[in-house]
Amino acid sequence: MSSSNEVLRLSDIKKSYNIGEPNEIEVLHGINFTIERHDFAALIGPSGSGKSTLLNLLGLLDQPTSGEIYLMGEPTSQMDDATRTHRRGQRIGFVFQFHHLIQAFTVLDNILMPLIMAHGRPTKSHIEHARALLDAVGLSQLADRKPNQLSGGQQQRIAIARALVTKPALLLADEPTGNLDSQTAEEIFELFRQVNRENDCAVLLVTHDPRLSKTCDRAIRLVDGRIESDELLQPST
Fold it and tell me: Helix or strand or coil: residue 177?
């Protein structure tokens, strides 16, 4: 039974590759955890532990071999590709280490891109929402610039605004500060905190940086494809 605050729940998730072949390998071995609206969590673990595989499953970019992933209480295993893509676009935002902004488009158009892909030509309310996000990340004056005219930290802020434009319930961030200097990384981390607090959006950060993970409210440690620990570091607000 899911709670009203539940965003994502993994039930006995396993993932194998090369199924039926001599080199078949199981990478994830029965993963169970829940992400709720208030969560500000880090997914940590050594290289090769299965973090990238798990992240792809969490973002509905891939499917588990067995087990069930529930998004907002809805089982995803029987969804067709179109439904899965729609749910992902509605409810999950992604931020990566490399921002993947489209250089030919303006900052504002980059933020609007998920809405353009979902709805076609953006409406007046879409544009107003995108401008409000641009203001929220402190870059309202750069709406008409191209991404290559921005610093790395500014580009990452734009990527966060783009991830939020669909008003997702969950923000997945894969090494989001790994390409930034420490001062800018701290500012980006605080922006994630603001998103979590003000947008009613759960945040899961995948990071190798122990300083970053220690300042999260929760740390989920993955080792050899298993959850080694799931620790509440400090009370979430």
Answer: coil
Domain contains 228: yes
C-alpha 211: how far from chain center: 19
Q: What range does the domain containing 97 cover?
A: 38-61+86-232
Answer positive or negative: Cα dihedral of 179, 184, 185, 191: negative
Per-residue pLDDT tens for 182-196?
887 888 888 888 889
Q: Is the pLDDT of residue 3 over 80?
A: no
Domain count, the chain: 1
Q: Is residue 144 part of a domain?
A: yes
Nearest to 59 by CA among 177, 215, 206, 189: 206
Cα–Cα dist 36/107, whole Å: 31
Q: What is the CATH number of the domain that holds 139?
A: 3.40.50.300
What's 129-163 look like in SS3?
HHHHHHHHCCCHHHCCCCHHHCCHHHHHHHHHHHH
Reported as a single tens digit per residue, the pLDDT across 207-221 is 877 778 888 999 999
Band (235; pLDDT cuts 50, 70, 90): low
